[in-house]
Amino acid sequence: MTPKTPRHTPRRRLAALATTPVLFVAYAALAAPASASLSDRDGDGMPNRWEVAHHLNPDVANARGDKDHDGVRNLGEYRRHLNPSDEDTDNDGMDDGDEVHDGRASTAPRDADTDDDGVKDGDEDADHDGLDNEDEDDATESCLADDDDRDRDGVDDEDENDQGTRVLVADTDGDGVLDGNEDGDHDGVDNEDEDDSSHDSCGSTHEDRDDDDQGDTSGDTQDD
């Protein structure tokens, strides 16, 4: 009597199929979307998806550019999980570049209050010279790196809290006068001029900012 050939159990059958080229190709097809999402067409070290999400051009190698002129190159922004279109990612008053390059553990570009003392990093005075961290570079930074004024009221975002005005409201008290043209402390100096250095040629305008991302590193004196 001829012995019967043993039948494969479902488990053994699956194990046998797993080694076939057909299943291998199917598996590779399922994995392709994940790897494709990390592709980098221009080879600049920044994934296409990240560049598009942050308004950079994924078809132009712009790793060495500095879109927001904060002193951190685009590639450095990617590596540090910062926003290359915002010079102050954590909105603490200090530019990302200042926090990256100051060498202090008391400031971090993704933590507005690094030491958790209730005071934003920009309002601290780390070197105890009587000048807030956010104001240390006011006399030396180029106009391209000058601080944001998102509500166009003449007062830099970093100085709005010092003046008692609101960052995204151009006329905080609703009296028809821009916050920058007010004299909050009644000292005869408009709010927009309170923080200006005598050597600051930028004034209170930001019209000369250049926000392209085509690899221009003007105003960028630091690597990432």
UniProtKB/TrEMBL annotation:
Keywords: Signal. Residues 1-31 form the signal peptide. It comes from Nocardioides marmoribigeumensis. This is Thrombospondin type 3 repeat-containing protein. Residues 85-99, 113-162, 172-197, 209-224 have a biased composition (Acidic residues). Coiled coil: none annotated. Residues 64-84 have a biased composition (Basic and acidic residues). It comes from the Bacteria. Residues 33-224 are annotated as: Disordered.
